[in-house]
Amino acid sequence: REMGVGVAEVVANAGACTKCAALNGELYPTDQAMRVLPRHPNCYCFWIPRPDITSGNIKGYRSLGEITSKLADGLGLETAFRRVCMGPNEIRKIESKSAHHLGYERARIILETSESGFIDTHGDICVVEHVEEGWAIIPFRETKTRGYQARTAYWNSWEQFSPKLEKVVKRYGF
Questions:
Q1: pLDDT tens for each residue of 107-122
Q2: What is residue 32's predicted lDDT score, i.e. its pLDDT?
Q3: Gyration radius of the chain over CA positions
Q4: Read out DSSP for 129-157?
Q5: Which residue from 52, 118, 172, 173 could staple onto 81, CB 3.0 to 4.6 Å apart?
Q6: Which whole number is the average pLDDT over 83-102?
Q7: ω into residue 38 within 30 of 0, thus cis?
Q8: What whole-number distance in Å separates Cα of residue 137 and Cα of residue 88?
Q9: Contact indicator for 120, 164 with CB cutoff of 8 Å
Q10: What is the DSSP letter of 36?
């Protein structure tokens, strides 16, 4: 708050208990975040400021994590903050168990580890990873009040994915 940041993200360390792991990626107004952690004695979780999010309306929003610096550099993204959030409706959608949606946890892992992606003609940045089912795609866009925001996370077969490559302005890693 003293830094002028209104939003904080909870980060649960590897090996966190189930209570803390469930909070990983949750976004809170800074005054509430101070009351969320620590959850219990010997809690090693922490929160990080999110200066890229200026909207106070973050109820239900979660962070998917941070895109790799290699991918950000490869796509020429000139931003100090590379964390991507997702709204509650989008999270419900990818958790719907639809055949083509990745689910929140799988999307988070792919977003944080993938070193390939592209920018399409609409300005969407897409993290891409080859997965067992085909190609995982996580499109997101920079917004004025919520930083990078993902709209969905899904997979396509090569036949469905390859036409998307025709609308690519820049690609990296594949």
A1: 999 999 999 999 999 8
A2: 87
A3: 16
A4: EEETTEEEEEEEEE-SSBSEEE---EEE-
A5: 52
A6: 91
A7: yes
A8: 19
A9: yes
A10: H
Q: Do residues 135 and 158 lie in contact, with contact meaning Cβ atoms separated by under 8 Å?
A: yes
φ, ψ dihedrals at 158, nearest 5°: -60, -40
Q: How does pLDDT run across 58-67, given as a tens digit for each residue?
A: 999 999 999 9
Contact between 153 and 87 (Cβ < 8 Å) = no
Q: What is the dihedral of CA 126, 100, 104, 69, to 10 degrees?
A: -20
Q: Which amino acid makes up residue 172?
A: Y
User: Distance between CA 66 and CA 122 in Å, rounded?
Assistant: 22
Residues with Cβ within 8 Å of residue 81, at least 6 apart in sequence: 50, 51, 52, 147
Contact (Cβ atoms closer than 8 angstroms) between residue 27 and residue 86: no
In b/e form, how buried is each residue of 113-139, taking b as 16+ CB within 10 angstroms? ebbbbbbbeeebbbbbbeeeebbbbbb
Query: Rounded to an integer, what is the distance from CA 109 to the centroid of its chain?
Result: 9
Calculated CA dihedral for residues 84, 90, 113, 141, nearest 10 degrees: -40
Q: What do you get for the CA distance between the two ends of the chain, in Å?
A: 41
3-class secondary structure, 90: helix
At residue 92, φ and ψ (nearest 5 deg) are -60, -40
